[in-house]
């Protein structure tokens, strides 16, 4: 396992209802194969309401939502005031290039917990309900014209445990040829 010396959990959040933002907590508990204890998105099958309506038996590849704190800094530089948890993330990291991780990367969070990164979060119009223009600020274009989604990554819980702000984040790349993150 590779541990970045400055990679850490900046904030941890959960919410038991399907609201857009989540409430920052002193700690959250990850449950293997399910997600964040007490969170509305906890489950083996998909829990996001729009996705559940389409296919209620689909695997929940979005058990834990992580956003890099550097995105919040970038948004602040563009005039948006966004605090940890407000974009619906469970874990805000600092010092981890989440968007650059290959699919299947294992992130260890604190002393016990670990998650496997499944893909990119696709920003939705709910972001603009928080602040007008915010969704566009979480998107960019690559030199080839392809869309860059910056609203974080999704993961499934591999090993349960407590996650707290200040916890170290370890990064273990997947074996084999790295695959770019799909949108999940």
UniProtKB/TrEMBL annotation:
One Pfam family it belongs to: MOSC
PANTHER family referenced in this protein's UniProt entry, alphabetically: METAL-SULFUR CLUSTER BIOSYNTHESIS PROTEINS YUAD-RELATED, MOSC DOMAIN-CONTAINING PROTEIN
Domain MOSC: 22-172
Organism: Sphingomonas aliaeris
Taxonomy, superkingdom: Bacteria
Protein name: MOSC domain-containing protein
GO MF annotations, alphabetized: catalytic activity; molybdenum ion binding; pyridoxal phosphate binding
């Amino acid at each position: 396992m590779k541990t970045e010396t400055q990679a850490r959990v900046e904030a941890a959040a959960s919410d038991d209802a399907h609201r857009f933002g989540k409430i920052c907590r002193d700690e959250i508990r990850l449950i293997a194969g399910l997600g964040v204890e007490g969170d509305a998105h906890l489950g083996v099958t998909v829990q996001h309401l729009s996705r559940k309506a389409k296919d209620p038996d689909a695997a929940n590849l979005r058990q834990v939502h992580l956003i890099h704190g550097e995105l919040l800094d970038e948004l602040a530089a563009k005039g948006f005031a966004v605090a940890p948890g407000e974009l619906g993330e469970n874990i805000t990291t600092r010092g981890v290039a989440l968007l650059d991780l290959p699919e299947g990367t294992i992130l260890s969070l604190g002393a016990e917990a670990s998650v496997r990164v499944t893909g990119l979060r696709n920003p939705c119009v709910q972001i603009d309900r928080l602040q007008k223009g915010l969704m566009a600020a979480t998107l960019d274009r690559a030199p080839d014209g392809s869309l860059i989604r910056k609203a974080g990554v999704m993961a499934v819980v591999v090993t349960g445990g407590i996650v707290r702000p200040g916890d170290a984040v370890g990064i273990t790349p997947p074996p084999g040829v790295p695959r770019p993150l799909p949108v999940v």
